[in-house]
Amino acid sequence: MPESPFSFLRSLSKRILHNPLMQRIIRNTGYLFSAQTISAAMSMAQGVLAARLLGVEGAGFVGIITQFSSNINRLTSFRMGELVISYVGEFSANGRRRHAAAVFKAAMLTEIASSLLAFAVLVSLAPLGARIFAHDPSLAGLFTFYGISVLANLMYESGNGLLQYFNQFRMIAFITVGQSVLTLLLIVGAFLTRGGLDMVVFAYLVGKVILALSISGAALWQARVVWGAGWWRVSLTVLSDRRSDLIRFAINTNLSGTLKLITRDSEMLWLGAFSTPVQVGYYKIAKAITNILMMPVTPLITTIYREVAHEVGSRHWPNVRYLLRSGSILSAAWTLPASIGLILFGQWVVAIYGLEFLPTSYINLLILLIGVIVINVLFWNRSILLLLGMPEYPTKVLFVGAIFKVIGTVLLVPHWGANGMAVLLTGFFLFTTGVLVWKTLREIRNAEFAPAISTGD
Predict the structure, then answer these.
(1) Using an 8 Å Cβ cutoff, are 182 and 173 in contact?
(2) What SS3 class is residue 167?
(3) What is residue 135's three-state secondary structure?
(4) For residue range 364-377, what is the model confidence (pLDDT) as tens digits?
(5) 12 or 253, which is more confident?
(6) Omega before 451 within 30 of 0, i.e. cis
(7) Helix, strand, or coil (residue 258)
(8) How far apart (Å, rounded) are the C-alpha atoms in residues 47 and 212?
(9) Higher confidence at residue 321 or residue 38?
(10) How far apart are CA 54 and CA 39, in angstroms?
(11) Which residue among 24, 92, 379, 440 is least packed, with the fewest CB closer than 10 Å?
(12) Which residues contact 429 (CB under 8 A, 6 or more apart)?
């Protein structure tokens, strides 16, 4: 006799909610989800006020300026958060405290050096960026001014990774909400005083600086609690036997991050270069709405990665499969209904930002939703391969996708504008996610039958 829908839902609920692994994930996700939900609402309010204050072109300028700075920072970044979670987790699980502290120290020093390099590059390229992407050389000063956020990010990724591994999700949530409140208050002030582009950029800058400095300070405190006051004196030579693994991991995550930067995190710059700031404004609003759809899934990515890192290290492959399946179910439970809602009521949502964004931003939104649904539900498509010791594979897949997306940008964006960029991003999501999910499941299946390798300190 077929199982009734209610019986299925009860068994599904029991399967997810009564498992200790998922209980911990749901608790930690709850902290970040609450923060992300509040931040999403505030982010939308910030975007609405900024868009109504500055108009379509002004919103495009804000997107170009902020993305220019963040992308240069990502260009030199080695995604130290992932490295910290992976290797601090590995060494901590084996009781190698000095090695774990050394990993965090090495990650922190590397990130500081890369941030200083990024700021130097940003200052030198700001005039060129203003001319090419914003088509307005007079904005070079604002490009440089917002670049201060790069300096504040000296150890943000490393610190965030450390806080995640040591289960400080409530602290991360508190900091996230606090900076969102501050940013919103500053933008409200700019709106009420009829401020200009410079005041809006200043508001976003303050929020970024507060977030980065607060996370960094909390991470230094956490390191002291776990490893003692003198943790930073540990010699990096204790990592000599793993140096090649660490460098390989960092380089490949940097390359993957760079390819993601080119293909999915720099569309506003590509649009600015091959189209106009007005098209950037249309696209910025569509991306802002889809980002709100993705925000509740972001904390799930973080908490699942932490738990899977532990299970992979312990070679508990059934638990790994369970976590991935359950994570996708939880994500789909939010993503699918929310996407249907945006399809039905998306025009009204776009109209909140201003009627001048219709209909282009709504068409962008519909196209982007296809890709967002896929990457939301299969959010673990790349990160698990890092834990399985295959950091190069995602890089290769992203590289192939990047080639086609860049070619498509040159051919389509000058004629189709924001709609062309939306089509290209969705196509990129479908291709890369499909390949990486196939490879991840195949490697997990192979790992289940591989002999365990013993390690010692």
Answers:
(1) no
(2) coil
(3) coil
(4) 999 999 999 999 99
(5) 253
(6) no
(7) helix
(8) 21
(9) 321
(10) 22
(11) 24
(12) 264, 371, 372, 374, 375
